[in-house]
Each structure stands twice: as C-alpha cells, then as structure tokens.
Amino acid sequence: MKRLILSMGLVAVAMALSATPLMATPFTCPTRGGDLVFGQEANVNSLDQMTSSTISTRNIAMNIYETLITRDENNKPIPELAESMQEAPDGMSYTFKLRQGITFHNGKALTSADVAASFDRYNRIGLQRSTLDNVAGWETPDAQTFIIRMKQVQPTFIEALSSFSVPIVIIPAEHKDDQRQQLRPVGTGPFRLLEFVPGSHARLGRFDAYKPNPAFEQRTGFGGYRVACLDTVTFRIVTEASARVAGLETGALHVVEDVPTRSLEGLRRNSAITILPLQNWWIQIALPNTALAPTDNLAFRRAVQAALNVEDIMDAATDNNYRLNVGFQYPNQPSYTDAGKETYNINNQQRARALLRESGYRNEPIIILTNRDYPPMYNAALVMEQQLKAIGINSSLRVVDWPTSVQMSQRVNSTEWHFFHSGWGTQPALGALATMQFLVSPGANYRPKDDKDDPDVKAAWDDMNNLRDPTARQEAFARMQRLVLERAYAFPFGSLTKVQAARANVKGFVPFRIPRFSNVWIER
Amino acid sequence: MLLLTLRRLLSAIPVLFIVSLISFGLMRLIPGDPAAAIAGIAATPAQIEQLRRDLGLDEPLLLQLLHYYQGLLQGDFGKSLLLGKGVLAATMERLPVTIGLSLYALVLTLLVGVASGIIAALRQNTWVDQVAMMVAMLGISIPNFFLGLLMIIFFAVQLGWLPSGGYVPFLQDPLGWLRSTTMPAISLALLQAGLLARITRSGMLEVLRQDYVRTARAKGLPERQVILKHALANALIPIVTVVGIIISLLLSGAVVTEALFSLPGMGQLLTQAVLSRDYPMVQGGLLLVTTFLVLVNILVDVLYALIDPRVRYE
User: Fold this and answer.
1) Which residues of B fall within a CB distance of 8 Å from A199?
2) Cβ-defined contact of A236 to B152 (cutoff 8 Å)
3) ipTM of the assembly?
4) Residue A445 CB neighbour total at 10 angstroms
5) With contact defined as beta carbons under 8 Å apart, do A403 and B33 qualify?
6) I want to staple A183 with a disulfide (CB 3.0 to 4.6 A). Which of A48, A124, B168, B272 is the partner?
7) Cβ neighbours of residue A350 under 8 Å, at least 6 residues apart?
8) Burial bucket for residue A435 (CB in 10 Å: 0-12, 13-18, 19+)
9) How far apart are CA A124 and CA A393, in angstroms?
C-alpha cells in the first residue's frame, strides 16, 4: 500500500518536472549492425495500432510508434513523447509538454497538431475510443503543448491513457483520415517500417534520426531510453511451432516466441540457444454462468471452488510452466493483493461434497465450454471436468473453436453452458482497473441474470474508478477481489509462463509483453 | 472450338452464382463471432462490441446479401474485415505465391509421375516396375504435412541446404524463390506424382497392347518414336483428365503446405479468413478460386479435343 502511494507520487513528480538528463551514463550499443529475425507465432494483418487489439499487431507496431505516456517495466505510467504532464488541481485538465526535436519517420517534426490529429482519429475509429468518453476536448495552444479537458474528474484517466491495449499512438496529422486498418505506418519510434507483407513478414529498419528519451538511462517497459543497435529487424510469421524451433536451431531465426514444451529439453542442451521464460503471461481462468441453474447457486459454485486442485489444472494446462497466483494481479505488480486467498486451491473433496449437498444439486448436466484453439484452455477444462466428476457433478465438455466459444459466452441469459474457460493476458498486465472491468456490466464475465451487476461488486468497482485517493482505490480493488472470489464469480487457476528462446549471441533481449528490439544487439 | 469454349464459359455462370450463394449462406450458418475472432484473445467484450458495430456486422442478413450482390455486379468483391483492404486486391497479392508453388509442384508431378509411369510400363514386372510403384505408393501414403516436417528436419536443420520457411518472390530473386519453394513443392507433388505414375502406367500398358503399336514396331520404327509418338499420345487422354483434378488438389493441398512453410499464399489467406469469420474474404476468395478452377477445367476440355480428334462436340 505504502509502496503504491510512493510509486504513484514518484511518477507524478517525474512527470511534473521538465526532463533533464540523469547523471548516470545512458545505454550505448556494445555493437551496432546486423539483421535480427524474429519468429512470430500469430499472423498479423495490419499495423494499424489504433484499430487493433491483437498481440501480433502490437508486437510490431510498438517498435514503430510511440505514445504521449506509456508504461514502464513495473507497469507504472511514464512519459514517452511527453516531456512532462501536469494535472490541474481540480482534476479537470491535463497539460502535456512535448519533447523537443522529435521527428517522424518521414522527416516531419512532431508538434502538438500531430498529437491532436492522432487523438481525432482515435476518437473517430479507435477500437478503445471509450477511453476518451470522459474527455470534453483537447487544445493546442502552441506547437509543444497539448491540453486535454475533461467532462468530469476521472482519477484513473492517466492509467487509462497510458494503456498499451489499444494505445493512442502518435501519427503525422496528414494521416488522420486513413481508413480503419489502413493507417500508413509512420511513427516516431526507434525503428521504421521498410516492408510489410501480411501473412509473411514485416521488416523494420533503424531510424537514424530517433532521439532516445533523456529522462531515462535504460529501456524500461514500452519506453525509457531506447536505442536501435540493429540495422534491421524482420518479424517472420511462423505459425507452426516445430518450424519455429527448426528455424531457431538453424539460425534462420534469432528469437522465437512460444517454444513448445516438448522441444525445451533439446533446446536446453544446445549451447547456441538461450531459453527465456516470460512469467505471468496470462491468468488461466474459468467463469461461471450465474444466470443459469445450478451455477446461479452460491453453494454450488463454492462446492466447485472447494473441489478444484489448481496445481493439477495448471500443470496440465501449461506443461508445468506456471505459477500459482491468488487473485487477478501478479505479485510483482504494485496493485497485487491476496485478498480472498482462503478461497484459492482449497482442494478439499469432503468440503466440496458437503457444499454440493447444501446446494441441493440433483445431478443436472453441467457443461464446461472450452476450445482447442488455445491448448491451455482445453487442457485446463479437461482436468476440471474430472475434478468435478470426482465429487459427484455430472460434468461434460463442450468443445468449439475460440470465436464460437466467445459468442456463446457473451449471450445474456445463455442456457448453453455453465463454465467458460478463458485466459486473461493483457488486462492483468495493464493493472487492476483493466482486469476488473471483466467483472462488471455490460458483459460481466460471470454472466449475471439480465446482465445486472451484483450491487456490492459494482459499488467496489465504482470506488476503484472514482475515489481520488490511490490508497482508497487500492482498498476498493482488494474489496472487489475478495467479493468476487468469495462469491465464486471467477475461478482463477494461476499464471501461465510463456517460454521464448533466442540464439546465444543475441544480447539485451528481455522477454516482455511485446518483443522489444531496441537496446538489443548481436554479439560478434 | 470457339463455340465449345463459349458454351463452357456460359455454363460456368450458374455454377459461380450457386457457389456465391452457398458461400454467403454457409459462412453465416457457422457459429462464431467475427468480431471476437478479428479482435483476438486480448480484446475485452467492450472492444469486441465496438468492432462489431464498426464492421457493420449488426446489419440484417438480407441487407448484407443485397450489398454483396450489388457489389459483385459492379466487380466489387467487398472489403476484408481482417485486412481492411479489398478482397480482390488481397487475393491478387497472394495468388502469385500459390500459383507459383502449384505450378512448380505440377511440373514436378508431371515430370516424375509421367516418366516413372512410362518406365514402369515399359519394364513391367521387373524390379524397376516394382520400385517405381512402391515409391508411388509411398508418395500416396505419406501425408504432405508429415513429409514437409521430415524435409525441414533433414534438409534445413541437419544439412542446412534449404531454408526452413519463408518466401522469396521470384522477381526479387529467382534462385531464392527456387530455394524457398522446393521443399513445399515436393511435399505437395509427391502424392499427385504417385497417383499420376499409377494412372500413366495403366494407360501405357493398355495402349502398348494395341495392334497399332505392334504394327509400328513391325514397321521398324525406332522404339522412342513408338513410345512417345504412338503410345504416349493415346495414353495422354486419361492423363489430361486427371491433370485438371490434380491442379484442384494442388491448390487445396497448398493450404497445409503454406502454413507449415510460412508462405503467404491463398491457402493461408482463406484458412485464416474462415477461422476469423472474415465473411467478405471467404466469399470473394472462394468465388475467385472457383472461377480459376472452372477456367482450368474448360482448358482441360479444350486440350482433350485437341489431343483426340475423335472427340466431337456438337
């Protein structure tokens, strides 16, 4: 709690000050040059970061584009293109001073007009334009100043603005009318786009006129002091896991994401390859349908909760690449809380049976909805099915593909499923606020009848959003998490580790929410 | 011949109409939310809902059908939900990859299949015949995906002779194109070559027993002329018929091969479109591929008539 207050205070101070270079030596490239090839598992169809929430787009786009503010390694908002940010005492406006001397990849100098145009486009067609619902408008009193005016106070606005889910990337003003998915890929990032063939590859080249952020001395999160050491980075789409591993072994690929567990043993013995596990990639989770009997019954849900052995579930789901995790944030995050921990990994069949009797369960069929597109979800569902059967629940799986399972899970008052398996990745990484929106209407994931929120959960959510004191907001989050877990509105099993790998001569690559290629070099 | 071609082209129109209607209907019958598929696993319900509205996926079905045919009549195949660009443009970008790969595979199929079929027929019941047919069976039996993986492990990982994946355009670097498409083409071609070898062998055996072949030999013609001019010319008829089918199979087989070798072709595009419920892309892509295959089969019919003067079309 104190850490949260301190860290938020530090951020505020850092952002209120004009940027001055720190006394320590900033990062310099030990070697420069070379072409690094990254094996990406998912196809990418567009680099329009404003209209896409896909991880595959973000992987590439966030090496090209930048934002006013972003997140650091510990998920705290930090300035990026903004040199400083001042929040008005009444909370009704935010004034950003832009860093000097920033140019776009087309040579044009960045001004506040470009920032305004970027916000205009985002407000028109941005996928997450609801971020600006509370914004009355924006102004550009001079070329280096950008002011956002609010309709009402929103204490969490900076957290929302710095989100990397669908960020408001800054583009040249003349691109503001580019159609959805057709944004010309010109940004201010350390790499510029050289070639993009959807379904095949994207090639980025060092942007020689890039100016690292002098407020930092190292890369941190999505920002910090970034330097392009490599001449080019090629993102090659390699959807087949075996082909990615083969590419890594031959050296055709220098870094790959998502190495299958069956290949790890062989790769570990290869001295030319380094294994890079990325912990806390997503929270493996199941959600109940509380609009349908018997999952509308608290005792029944608690019976299920008591029956679950989450270690077995996570082991099967992740091939032993997991961590047990209480709640909806990770221990390394400032917002982490273990509120509700007594509901986690109970694994007590006797207690589960007693709760089942209390619920009056009459052997109705229980449908567990899952999909094969994401093996961890399928495997977790398989084990959960068996654990429920062990306490006398008549459970079975309904296996469809991901788009179908999402469609089915989103129907209000659905009668087709009782539990829905999913994975929460980006939202927990963004923070408590982004995560807990999954548990409020519209579209609360525990599917309350007629999509009407549990009033206690809603009250906690409102406090998370509206209380001005960060400590109070954190307490509201802990309260909301406890309520959700005690009322069994969600069954978080644990966090999945995503295993990446790189050639041993690739230095400076640290796994993160995106593959970051600034401050990365190839050792000769 | 011209009349034949025109008649075939006209008869293709109802085929294409039916395909367009079926593809429209089928895609909408398949459960699944296109917005969820396109937005990806990281999207929130609010983002998915926003996307659904942005893409016009909440329009009534009949209105969507009306817009679709209105566009088709003007040569507009629609705009891909996933790519944000025209279906025709997206297809034209990817088609050369698939056609190039399929042509390469077809050349290998014809060379290996026809040659081994002829040799097996000429050396009937010898060890040459047995080996040729065994290899043909092997080609038919091994799934192309498995063969592709084996080749990657052997030729890419172990020997380092060929790249494990990726595509180099022909115009950019012909040698690079050859290297990047050789393993995919072989994995595609082996099955078809095996089939073609067996069909060629059967056809040749049938023809070699004919009186006119005996007569040709009796007249003292060189064996090469007997085989290539007299026997093969007549054995070509069933082969040409099968080639039309082989082209269809090569195009559909390209789906798996393109995924394995990371080739940005039509197969990969259409697969992703189906999985993502990209309705316009599936509808337009299917229509274009169907048109292509219809034209190929018309060509086969024309070739048939050219090869066999006994065939008359009234």
Assistant:
1) 94, 264, 268-269, 272
2) no
3) 0.76
4) 24
5) yes
6) A48
7) none
8) buried
9) 49
